[in-house]
Amino acid sequence: MLDLTGKNALVTGIANNRSIAWGIAQQLHKAGANIGVSYLPDDKGKMEKKVAELVEPLNPSLFVPCDVQNEAQIESTFAAIQEKWSKLDILIHCLAFANKEDLSGEFSHTSRSGFAKALEISTYSLIQLSGAAKPLMTEGGSIVTLTYLGGDRVVPNYNVMGIAKAGLEMSVRYLASELGSQNVRVNAISAGPIRTLASSAVGGILDMIHHVEEVAPLRRTVTQTEVGNAAAFLCSDLASGITGQILYVDAGYQIMGM
Ligand SMILES: NC(=O)c1ccc[n+]([C@@H]2O[C@H](COP(=O)([O-])OP(=O)(O)OC[C@H]3O[C@@H](n4cnc5c(N)ncnc54)[C@H](O)[C@@H]3O)[C@@H](O)[C@H]2O)c1
After folding, report:
1. For site-directed labelling of 103, which of 74, 164, 167, 237 has its Cα 20 to 30 A away?
2. Does the keyword Cell membrane apply (predicted)?
3. Gap between the Cα atoms of 244 and 172, Å rounded
4. Is residue 203 pLDDT above 90, yes or no?
5. Domains in the chain, ordered, with CATH?
6. Positions marked catalytic
């Protein structure tokens, strides 16, 4: 029943083979989805080359640069979707950023510019990409974003990203409310800690992972593939009655009080 054949899926946020977005793209592809990939471009074209090589086995029919701080790139990404696919069914928002200095130490010393940057890239981008996707989701659709427990409870060092994730989770609910009449579902996956490029910027990430391995009901953290499976489920008809939700894929850690 988990069949995504004929569905067009844009996956954002693949940086390397540890990226959660890479785990999601692979599972969507396995379920039969037609994959499009957007990447964060850099001056030397290194990211483009690296991501293109990585995603080649998935035969992406769309491969576009999209820095979410760049209006023109967002516009051209969705123009390319319109031109190549005519409709979009799945949007995977799997990106975030905060300055490293804002991911450790005293939260009260978060800089104004660091706050604005983290919230713009990590939170506002979901709103903007969803707005751009809306007119293309003519046959309904599914939008999935990635959040973390630090947006709901205090996790040492997560700091400004906790505020970004709290805003992201509330944005999921407002977007779900708006887009529901068009049969577009919007959900978030709250993943347990996984070692990636982004998570390595969070102070003490290894301690966080070890703590989860000791305390979580499953006595381990999760893999990109497990998050990918949950995303494929949320994008499929199996989840047709689910919207506006935060689904914890964290080996059960979130239920624990101590
Ligand atoms: N790794 C974890 O432990 C964990 C846990 C829960 C949630 N998450 C969330 O999962 C998502 C993916 O992160 P990840 O851990 O796979 O790390 P990652 O470093 O592999 O992915 C982060 C992505 O964000 C992209 N990005 C940053 N700035 C951007 C911009 N301006 N425009 C477009 N893209 C931009 C990067 O290019 C990268 O591909 C993030 O939202 C993160 O907060 C991660």
Report:
1. 74
2. no
3. 6
4. no
5. 8-248 (3.40.50.720)
6. 148, 158
